[in-house]
Amino acid sequence: MNMIMHTNHQSTEINDLALLGLMQLISPALPIGAFAWSQGLESALELGWVRNEQDIGQWLEGVLDDGLSRCELPALARLQNCWAEGDNNGLAYWNDWLHANRETAELSDEDTRLGLALMRLLTSLDLQPQTKQGHALLPEEPGYVTVFAWVAHQRLVPVRQSLLGFAWGWLENQLSVACKAMPLGHTAAQRLTEQLRPKLVDAVEAALALPDQQLGAILPGLALASAQHETQYSRLFRS
């Protein structure tokens, strides 16, 4: 499968309601439990791989460059296009592709649980994906990125802004982990936000330019940290 990104069918401008819908989707107040996961960062702190503000910035920049820009973000763009085009095969393919790229049980469990939690919330809001003939169908065991793509499509959020919003939500979550798991103050977290904001844009640009055959995260350190976290004796975040 070789689905190079085409986003001309969507405006690159975002209207007010779509913007508010995106803000709701990436809000830390969204009740899906994303705050409970550290994505390996807690173990990186415990192991001494990340020890201070500078280390955290380098760790997060590395995850952006070799992880999100090569995995979640390009997959999100493809999934949102599949929802828009009613492409059931594409939805199943990219949903399964993401599951196959989760290198630890913890990362796989997080993706599945957040996807199911977001689906329960959408059902309570009557925003769940349609199942009528002619509409794309939700894959079995939909992951978080797949459901996120549905909401972005349903809210008429342009693909580029969907990716920016997803990356912003990830950054806020990771900085929240750092603030809880180590002595990183909120002012330091804001400094890191300022440092990494341009990197989010770079990651989205890279994600939109990558062809299918170049996708796939290159994060052995994060995978090792996540695997270590599964058996870490003392931890604040879920495993």
UniProtKB/TrEMBL annotation:
Its main location: cytoplasm. The keyword Iron does not apply. It comes from the Bacteria. The keyword DNA damage does not apply. It holds the Pfam family UreF. Belongs to the UreF family. Required for maturation of urease via the functional incorporation of the urease nickel metallocenter. This is Urease accessory protein UreF. The gene is ureF.
